[in-house]
Amino acid sequence: MGTKRTVRNRIRVAVVDDDEVIHLLITDLLQGTSDFACAGCFSNATDALAGLPGLEPDLVLMDIRMPGGGGIECTARLKRAMPRMKTIMMTGVNDPDSIEKSLEAGADGYLTKPITADQCLAMLRFTLKGRARDCSPLSQRDNEVMR
Known about the structure:
Blueprint: E1 11-16, H1 20-31, E2 36-42, H2 45-55, E3 59-63, H3 71-81, E4 86-91, H4 96-105, E5 109-112, H5 117-128, H6 140-146
Parallel strand pairs: 1-2, 1-3, 3-4, 4-5
């Protein structure tokens, strides 16, 4: 069997968002692919900070605004503990200040909700493209969505 870092050689993605519907939608989306798997879901920054290091995900989809602690500070703390982990911020507000603060905290990408399935998968692949780990190259459709 594989280690914690692999689920049938899939990229492990965790979700940190206070919206349970987002957890379900992203989990279903990831399960429908051959290259991604859901490593776990957390509803707040406190639980994410406690649980993510043990799960060792390759990438985290992080909501910026959550009760009890924001995603930007959570990302900064996680990046110090797990510098190789990629993070994509998600928010319902397209705010230049939040984008700048997210990047300063170590975020590798930024998505504005609502997010389509194609946008989410394209951003996951785009964010991971530079990694040494084997992952699917961007398809023509992924490139169209990113543009």
